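Write out this protein's structure.
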Amino acid sequence: ESLTKYVHMSIFGWIIIFVFYAICAAALGLILYVLRRTRLRWLIVIPLALIALALPWIDEAQISWHFAQACKDAGVHITRQVTVDGYLDEVVGSSRDKPGIIADPGAAKQLDDGGFKFYERKINRSSATGKISHIEKVDGEWKATIIDKPKARYHYRLAGPQREQPIGFRLQKREKVVVDAMTGEVVARQVGYNRYPGWVESLWLG
């Protein structure tokens, strides 16, 4: 496949490239003038000109190409479907660190709309306490209790220690998984990728 189909440049990027080419042309013209009495001057100038022409595109093309290849794996991949009453969400932590009734109608409606009988989240996800906020509907009301261990068998978590894992030059992977805590089996994966611009676009984006 042609690399040009993967190259995307903004109008600001084109302006930077035009200025870069103008500076390179002036520099190459000066070199030709200095070497005007040298027979091999073109053997020096032509390779430099080719390098100057390619330089704004090299990193953009390879970033875009690798990003396009990686994105073929993007999306939701389901190994096995399961029916559950609730799950542990390890991706988003809970600030609810005390037991009690959830009186906020909006929060209660959001829980109802989720369709599960209970929800669990780690309290202050970055904390080492390991406490779990367990929210379940009891007698028609959503009630939070604090437990030491999750009751949910299936855990929704990040696949790695960070939300975004570097996988190459200017590329990152985002992956979340649903894990069967009893067997360790990954029953579903949600995969996405980030790419960042090459040096030309970074000059104005920065």
